[in-house]
User: Which sequence fits this backbone?
């Protein structure tokens, strides 16, 4: 990563991260609702926990992990910081915020 | 195993005192300017967890005990909304900040042209949906108090809880009126409460799982088989509640308050996007185990809604029970505090303010009078909201399961969803559409869900519920149009939200938005592309004095002075009031909107300023601007791609040109060299001829040499011309059927003298006879002669031979001319057909080296080919590749 990256590639990368952020909830909705969730509604235990309970909590944990990773990458891609620049709240002459 | 009421009351009061301290401390820190820690994403996330009320704290376990996994939907919905924050929440927060939105009602009204009617409608919905929810919290607190401290007067407890919360909320929630001057104290207290309730629930959970049951496996071993009911839980109800919870996290007044209004930094959302789902995850982790152990251990008939409390009590762990009680208490208080602040803001901004504007004429204004009115009305509203909740609690007597009330409230507030979504993603949505949709949705919600929830005690009687009004079965509240009996919640949701959305869309399509609606619509939908503060689209005229008076009345003297000084400085005026330009009026309106809501601010500014016009060109401007922006960036992207493509092509062409250029230089050098050799001979011999005394035979010899050399020169020039013409295509070679046998015999006859001279033997071959190929007779002869001559000339074998073979392959004829002269190497074969290259075999012989290139060009122009092939034994030979001609054509 030593060589400077092409701005077009960077923009593409940032866009991909953003698109992933858009897709995440759809993916979550799909795996947490029927018919996919039904596939795991079987009797049986994983480490003593019913399969469906383990499945839902595992998916949930994965979604949280995914969101955390994405949030970090969104930060790094500069997507959040850049857009906020120049949008600071106006301030009164004495420095207080209106 | 019951604690003394006095102890519980003392602890409760101590806890409330702790909350007061936190809020007071945070407010003081803010005033001192040390508020960095208050502005952290962690505090923001914790404050959002006001979503987890006592309905979660106690009710989730109850729900799990009754309906198994269903309780999870309440937390999965918000999880999905939060991990999809980039899609929706980010936009809401951005709009909220730019438009100085004070509540969900303000958001809707502001979007639809600052419509006061919509603001009132949403406020009423919020009050109707939230009151039962507040009652639910009071009920939870009183019930938990009863459970832990034995019998008490429920009304008494409920009243004092409500009163205590009212005092707290009024103290810390109505210090200032500006939404942008956020309620730091309250937010800090809410964050502290979030930690308390999480800690309490986790403690109870860990105790139950590892203390009472003895491990995770042991817990689930005691689970009744039908409890999870996994086959049936994933049905329409599962989806419906996920959707409801997702809408609730966006639309509930208290959620909107902490997420959008109290947001200090848009970037905090990115942290909350995973941290809040994590909080929910942890809250849910022990719900199912507590429910299982509660069902197994506690006597049948125990209220599952109080398992969190009764399990530690039954086990004799009083301190844990007290902690659980405080957890539930904190969950209840945080919800009540935030919800009543949000509702009070809405009531004062959208109901009291417009009323006072229409009753009290604007003359004789005194400084800050509106401000005072607002603060007073908010305080009264907080008291009124809590009192309403208390009344509801007393009237319903609290017999319902907790979860039921929660879902009804969710479904009520979800009616705002279509207008909200349509408002921020669709420019075509109109105020009339939003109002019509909302009204229809709320009426249906009331009829199919809210009123039936009283079980026939309120407005709708039992007989109406069972047989429909006036006995019309088609109108039964829980089976409209005789829909097959399904879950009442799903039924109500489909009817109310479905019709709400359809009517909203239909009316929006049928009506034309007012100019202000269109302007606001554009600003909302394109929140990320337009800069609200940058340009003023509304033209108004006003005197600066009027505006200043107005600002004073609402903001107070000092803030108004500061604001006007700043505007004046921005206009380059050092002293005195600023000019009342359009952007100045706009700015003032936005500032006021932060205090009184968009609709009231607009109404008040419009009173002071007259002649409001929004020109169509301006509207087109804003639409055009964003469109242009999008188009420009699209075009730029296209251009970039195109430029890259062009650049690549240019690079390719450039490298090809370089090669060609080098080839041309080589060619010229070789041509000059080739021409120079005979020229030098001719020149030197003609110089000798000029000498006077030459022998006749000498003379004769020199002249012959000159003649031969000039012939060679001519031939060379002819060949160069020929290949030039062949290559640039200026000679037309007409292809016609040629009998290969004839052509071959002719060529062999021509080279026969040469063969005799070099003693080369042409081996007998299979005469092609009548086989016809497509070629040009003259050119074919030239090619054959060239190849055969080469085979003869450059053959230095002991007994030189030439073999000729041919074969037909599909529609092609391959003619191989093979000599035993040693062939060429593979490397040589690569360059054999370049101009002026002579194979190693010809090093000693004469020849310009153009014969093979010309032959190949001819063959290719005739859509055949000439190439060097290698036999399995490594020897090389020339192969001529012809197209077969039609037999019929050949016969002609």
Assistant:
């Amino acid at each position: 990563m030593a060589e400077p990256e092409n701005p077009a590639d960077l923009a593409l990368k940032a866009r991909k991260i953003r698109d992933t952020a858009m897709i995440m909830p759809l993916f979550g909705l799909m795996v947490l609702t029927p018919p996919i969730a039904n596939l795991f509604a079987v009797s049986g235990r994983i480490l003593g926990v019913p399969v469906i309970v383990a499945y839902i909590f595992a998916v949930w944990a994965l979604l949280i992990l995914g969101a955390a990773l994405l949030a970090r990458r969104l930060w790094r891609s500069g997507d959040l910081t850049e857009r906020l620049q120049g949008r600071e709240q106006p301030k009164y002459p004495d420095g207080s915020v209106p | 195993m019951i604690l003394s009421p006095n102890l519980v009351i003392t602890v409760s009061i101590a806890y409330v005192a702790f909350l007061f301290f936190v809020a007071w401390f945070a407010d003081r820190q803010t005033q001192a300017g040390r508020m960095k820690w208050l502005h952290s994403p962690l505090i923001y996330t914790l404050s959002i967890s006001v979503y987890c009320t006592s309905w979660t704290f106690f009710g989730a376990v109850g729900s799990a005990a009754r309906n198994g996994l269903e309780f999870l939907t309440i937390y999965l919905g918000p999880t999905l909304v939060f991990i999809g924050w980039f899609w929706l929440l980010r936009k809401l927060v951005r709009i909220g900040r730019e438009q100085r939105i004070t509540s969900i009602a303000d958001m809707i009204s502001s979007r639809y042209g600052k419509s006061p009617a919509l603001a009132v409608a949403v406020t009423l919905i919020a009050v109707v949906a939230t009151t039962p929810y507040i009652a639910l919290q009071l009920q939870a607190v009183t019930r938990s108090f009863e459970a832990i401290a034995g019998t008490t007067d429920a009304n008494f407890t409920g009243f004092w809880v409500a009163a205590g919360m009212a005092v707290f909320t009024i103290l810390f929630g109505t210090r200032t009126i500006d939404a942008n001057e956020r309620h730091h104290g309250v937010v800090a207290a809410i964050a502290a409460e979030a930690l308390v309730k999480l800690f309490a629930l986790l403690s109870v959970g860990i105790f139950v799982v590892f203390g009472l049951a003895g491990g995770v496996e042991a817990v689930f071993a005691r689970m009744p088989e039908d409890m999870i009911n996994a086959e049936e839980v994933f049905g329409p109800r599962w989806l419906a509640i996920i959707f409801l919870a997702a809408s609730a996290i966006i639309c509930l007044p208290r959620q909107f308050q902490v997420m959008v209004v109290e947001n200090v930094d848009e970037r905090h959302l990115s942290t909350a996007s995973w941290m809040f789902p994590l909080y929910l995850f942890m809250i849910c982790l022990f719900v199912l185990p507590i429910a299982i152990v509660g069902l197994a251990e506690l006597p049948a008939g125990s209220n599952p809604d109080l398992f969190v409390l009764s399990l530690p009590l039954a086990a004799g762990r009083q301190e844990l029970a007290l902690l659980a009680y405080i957890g539930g208490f904190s969950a209840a208080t945080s919800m009540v505090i935030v919800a009543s602040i949000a509702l009070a803001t809405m009531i004062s901004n959208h109901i009291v303010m417009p009323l006072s504007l229409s009753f009290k004429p604007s003359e004789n204004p005194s400084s800050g009078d509106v401000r005072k009115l607002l603060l007073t009305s908010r305080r009264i509203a907080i008291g009124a909201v809590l009192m309403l909740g208390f009344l509801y609690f007393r009237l319903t007597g609290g017999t319902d399961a907790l979860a039921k009330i929660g879902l009804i409230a969710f479904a009520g507030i979800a009616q705002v969803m279509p207008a909200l979504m349509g408002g921020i993603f669709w420019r075509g949505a109109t105020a009339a559409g939003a109002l019509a949709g909302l009204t229809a949705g709320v009426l249906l919600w009331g009829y199919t869900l809210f009123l039936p929830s009283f079980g026939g005690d309120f407005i709708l009687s039992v007989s109406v519920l069972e047989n429909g009004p006036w006995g019309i079965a088609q109108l039964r509240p829980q089976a409209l149009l005789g829909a097959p009996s399904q879950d009442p919640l799903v039924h109500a949701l489909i009817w109310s939200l479905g019709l709400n959305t359809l009517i909203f869309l239909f009316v929006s399509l049928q009506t034309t938005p007012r100019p202000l609606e269109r302007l606001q619509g554009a600003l909302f939908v394109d929140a990320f592309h337009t800069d609200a503060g940058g340009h003023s689209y509304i033209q108004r005229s006003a005197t600066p004095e009027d505006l200043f008076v107005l600002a004073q009345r609402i903001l107070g003297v000092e803030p108004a002075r500061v604001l006007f000084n700043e505007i004046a400085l921005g206009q380059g005026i050092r002293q005195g009031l600023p000019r009342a330009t359009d952007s100045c009026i706009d700015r003032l309106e936005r500032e006021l909107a932060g205090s009184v809501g968009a609709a009231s601010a607009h109404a008040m500014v419009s009173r002071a300023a007259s002649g409001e016009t929004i020109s169509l060109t301006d509207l087109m401007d804003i639409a055009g601007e964003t469109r242009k922006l999008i188009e420009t960036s699209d075009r730029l992207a296209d251009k970039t791609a195109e430029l890259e493509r062009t650049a690549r092509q240019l690079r390719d062409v450039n490298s090809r040109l370089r090669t060609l250029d080098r080839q041309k230089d080589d060619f010229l050098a070789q041509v000059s060299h080739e021409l120079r050799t005979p020229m030098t001979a001719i020149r030197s011999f003609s110089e000798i001829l000029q000498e006077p005394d030459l022998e006749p035979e000498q003379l004769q010899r020199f002249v012959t040499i000159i003649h031969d050399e000039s012939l060679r020169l001519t031939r060379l020039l002819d060949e160069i011309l020929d290949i030039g013409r062949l290559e640039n295509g200026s000679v037309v070679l007409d292809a016609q059927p040629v009998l290969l046998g004839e052509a071959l015999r002719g060529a062999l006859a021509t080279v026969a003298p040469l063969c005799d001279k070099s003693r080369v033997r042409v081996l007998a071959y299979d005469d092609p006879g009548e086989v016809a190929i497509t070629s040009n007779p003259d050119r074919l002869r030239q090619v054959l002669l060239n190849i055969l001559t080469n085979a003869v000339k450059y053959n230095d074998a002991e007994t030189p031979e030439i073999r000729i073979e041919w074969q037909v392959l599909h529609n092609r004829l391959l003619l191989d001319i093979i000599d035993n002269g040693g062939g060429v190497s593979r490397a040589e074969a690569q360059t054999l057909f370049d101009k002026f290259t002579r194979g190693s075999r010809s090093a000693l012989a004469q020849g310009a080296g153009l014969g093979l290139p010309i032959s190949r060009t001819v063959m290719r122009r005739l859509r055949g080919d000439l190439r060097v092939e290698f036999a399995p034994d490594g020897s090389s030979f020339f192969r001529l590749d012809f197209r077969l001609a039609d037999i019929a054509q050949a016969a002609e």
Notes: Residues 888-892 of chain B have pLDDT under 50 and may be disordered. Chain B has 36 helices and nine strands. The two ends of chain B are 121 Å apart (CA to CA).
